[in-house]
Design a protein that fits this description.
Among the domains are: 49-129 and 508-649, no CATH class; 253-310 and 319-418, Orthogonal Bundle (GTPase Activation - p120GAP, domain 1); 668-764, no CATH class. It is built from 30 helices and 9 strands. It has helices at 8-14, 26-36, 54-62, 71-111, 117-125, 140-155, 158-166, 169-183, 190-210, 223-232, 244-259, 271-275, 278-304, 311-327, 333-354, 368-386, 400-417, 424-435, 446-458, 460-463, 470-478, 509-514, 519-537, 549-557, 562-580, 589-648, 659-662, 675-680, 729-737, 752-764; strands at 441-445, 492-496, 668-674, 684-687, 697-705, 708-715, 723-728, 742-744, 748-751.
Length: 766
């Protein structure tokens, strides 16, 4: 404890003696608050102490001291800049990837002129260049209010956590982009990453608390599952197709190409008939063995790389295990691991396997056969992780021996994945340090600000029902949110963040009364921190053993550097005050020893920083290369789209003159279908709804924005839907391309091809 170094006789006499001309530093303000809230004081020798202590706050701030200009500070400045560029580039890549996926699917529709005018205009707008110059909010008061609002949202994740549960499925993607890539966009800063994970915990807890069925946990397409997917997005040419029908069709094609004559084998057969064909079975048998061998190799690599799995991913797995045990205490380890595996493989591993180029794991486009092999590997790993009692594709049942052989192995891995420590103490320290900073800011676009403002206001009654809530006060003062600006005008701004309700120590005497810290404690730590700054700026003085602090202060006070002169005079006065109140003697040997240890530690810290810079430079280059690839794709789309416009006569550019005439809200539908209608159309292929209730079931399908569709399942007489699912055209077309035939809606299973046909017929041809 700090008290242990003092003379007890002097302590009581001088504890409350006023300290002349001394104003506590900004970190002292955070330290008082930390001590008042129960953070242990710790010892003066912070380097040998737990990081979770009041004393260690000064040392943690010293590690990133911007007032010094030595080699360590220059390296740290370079590291901070590199981290900021990686975060900004990651956000740009995420936006570009969305544009590329969107355009890839819609240009195919445009060729056949099957898109409605508003969808065509949306496609054209995706090709508009974004102005990367910084913008501003001219109204200074509005800018300050937004700075206060986003500080509140960032530092208190409960608001965003609740908002993600309140917004509609059509609104969630835009909100998540703001949350993941802007509000908590710097994944290399522990405070932002830990706050984001805290928000995850709130959302997951709410999902588990409201769950009525174990089997539906984390399975449905919900804001929670979308959030987890968005978070995780921060070989030889072998034909290993094992789908009997596809093998049969390829076999006929090969025979016809080889003989030059039509094959006499029957066409248009079912998968079951194809599976009985002896030649098909002979082709598939060796492929099954090869596929299991390749998947086994993937699995071994994944298991051996457990220490390379990002902390955040492992921590979410840990929360899934913990929440499941709390909600379902009788759940078996088998069932719990299936939930963990569902998240880890579906959201993190399999996207990298199926689309290695999108995940920056491959520089060239994957050809069809390897792509299909990777898809089958991902399916087999997913079956292993989920441990289903049935397989959605019957041909996958042939691979069950692999699942049986590896289920114990995968369970151990998934449990090991959860064995990580918590971050709550580290986050608490980061939050206190943030209180001492004056340069908190956010790089955010105008539309991100306005959209978040709009969503918060829309759900204000739930988010902040009390008029005295800070969020309620800010929203009331901000008033009505501005409308979204066009893509070309959607500039980024640097938004300073601050807390208008921050209490100064001088204005709140009770903070001192509640804290175990005395003014003498804080003076001691501030003096030591300032002395470390001076020794770092005058490294020759550090060679003296032991350090003579008064001599160092005098040397600084009489130097030719105005900044050092100011600091030298100040620290000299502080040393004398420490003597007067009995906290330190005239030689200050105790503090001198601590300063020397701090200097040694900071010297070794430079090597760690340089190593991290080297590693992150490789990451940044990879991200930039991927950005160039995405931009080249967009350029090809521009040329392609212009060519299609010319050939088909589509007047999307000229249509801008008719913008006001054609302008209308996009929302279409809902279009109502009975259960019987969708069964007849071949959309519903399996149903868990009892026969006597099917007549009371109907579906509403609507399109809130171009390319996005909402399917709602209703029971007659009920105002609210039993089930709601948000579908993206991109996702459906990708499933179709990957050969995924079924879409699981919990109560019914839909045919992907027929769903696309219905949506195209009702919404895309207008």
């Amino acid at each position: 404890m700090l008290e242990s170094r003092r003379d007890p006789n002097q302590l009581n006499a001088n504890r409350y003696k006023s300290l002349r001309n001394y104003t506590p530093s900004s970190i002292a303000k955070a330290a008082y608050k930390a001590a008042a809230y129960g953070v242990p004081l710790g010892t003066n020798n912070a380097r040998n102490d737990k990081r979770y202590s009041v004393v260690s706050l000064w040392s943690m701030v010293a590690e990133n001291d911007i007032e010094i200009d030595d080699e360590l500070t220059k390296a740290q400045r370079k590291l901070r800049d590199l981290k900021a560029r990686i975060s900004a580039q990651s956000k740009r890549n995420f936006t570009l990837e969305k544009d590329v996926r969107y355009l890839d699917t819609r240009i195919k529709l445009l060729i056949k002129n099957r898109m409605a005018l508003d969808v065509q205009q949306e496609v054209a707008s995706r090709l508009d260049e974004v102005d990367n110059t910084l913008g501003t909010i001219p109204d200074d008061r509005k800018r300050q209010l937004y700075g206060n609002l986003f500080f509140l949202l960032q530092s208190e994740p409960k608001h965003i956590a609740m908002l993600t549960r309140l917004v509609s499925l059509s609104e969630i993607d835009t909100l998540l982009q703001t949350v993941m890539f802007t509000l908590y966009g710097n994944q290399y800063e522990s405070r932002e990453e830990y706050l984001l994970l805290t928000m995850f915990q709130n959302v997951l807890s709410a999902q588990f608390d409201s769950a009525t069925d174990f089997g539906s946990l984390l399975r449905a397409n919900t804001p929670v599952s979308r959030m987890m997917t968005t978070y995780t997005r921060r070989g030889p040419d072998l034909d290993l197709e094992i789908n009997p029908l596809k093998v049969y069709e390829q076999m006929i094609k090969d025979i016809e190409e080889e003989t030059g004559k039509p094959c006499d084998l029957p066409k248009g057969i079912t998968q079951e008939v194809a599976q009985e064909n002896a030649d098909v079975q002979a082709i598939i048998a060796p492929r099954l063995n090869m596929l299991m061998e390749i998947t086994g190799s993937f699995l071994s690599t994944i298991i051996s790389s457990i220490n390379q799995v990002p902390y955040g991913i492992r921590w979410i797995c840990k929360q899934i295990r913990s929440l499941t045990k709390r909600k379902y205490p009788d759940a078996t380890d088998f069932n719990i691991c299936s939930l963990i595996g569902g998240f880890f493989f579906l959201r993190f591993i399999n996207p990298a396997i199926v689309t290695p180029q999108a995940c920056m794991l491959s520089e060239s486009k994957i050809s069809p056969n390897p792509r299909r092999t990777l898809t089958l590997v991902a399916k087999l790993l997913q079956n292993l992780a989920n441990k289903p009692t049935y397989s959605k594709e019957s041909y996958m049942l042939s691979l069950n021996p692999f699942v049986e052989q590896n289920k114990t192995r995968i369970n151990k891995f998934l449990n090991d994945l959860c064995e990580v420590g918590d971050f709550y103490e580290s986050l608490e320290m980061d939050q206190y340090i943030a209180l001492s900073k004056k340069d908190l800011e956010l790089n955010i676009t105008l539309n991100e600000i306005y959209n978040t403002h709009s969503l918060l206001l829309q759900h204000a009654e739930v988010l902040c029902p009390n008029e005295e809530d800070h969020l309620s006060i800010i929203l009331k003062e901000l008033g009505t949110p501005p409308p979204q600006v066009p893509r070309k005008e959607n500039k980024s701004i640097i938004l300073p963040l601050f807390n208008r309700w921050e209490t100064l120590i001088a204005d709140n005497p009770s903070m001192l009364a509640d804290s175990q810290l005395t003014q003498g404690d804080v003076l001691y730590m501030d003096t030591k921190a300032l002395m470390v700054q001076i020794v770092r700026a005058m490294p020759a003085m550090a060679k003296e053993k032991p350090l003579n602090l008064l001599r160092i202060a005098e040397a600084a006070a009489t130097s030719h550097d105005p900044t050092l002169v100011r600091k030298g005079i100040k620290v000299r006065d502080m040393l004398y005050q420490l003597e007067e109140i009995g906290v330190s003697d005239s030689k200050h040997e105790f503090m001198a020893n601590e300063v020397a240890q701090e200097i040694i530690y900071l010297g070794s810290l430079k090597e760690k920083v340089m190593k991290e810079i080297k590693s992150l430079e490789v990451v940044f280059k990879t991200i930039c290369d991927h950005n160039n690839f995405l931009r080249s794709q967009l350029e090809s789309y521009k040329a392609y789209l212009q060519n299609v416009r010319t050939q088909s006569g589509t007047q999307m550019v000229k249509g801008k003159e008719k913008k006001n005439k054609n302008k209308s809200n996009h929302i279409f539908g809902p279009i109502k279908y009975t259960h019987a209608q969708l069964e007849k159309e071949g959309v519903i292929v399996e149903s868990n709804i009892p026969e006597n209730r099917k007549s009371n079931i109907y579906f509403n399908i609507s399109s809130p924005i171009p390319g996005s569709f909402i399917i709602e399942l209703y029971y007659k007489g009920r105002a609210k839907p039993i089930l709601e699912m948000d579908l993206k055209l991109d996702d459906l077309l990708e499933k179709q391309q990957m050969g995924i035939q079924l879409l699981d809606l919990e109560y019914v299973r839909l045919n992907v091809n027929r769903v696309i046909f219905i949506l195209n017929k009702q919404f895309l041809k207008r």
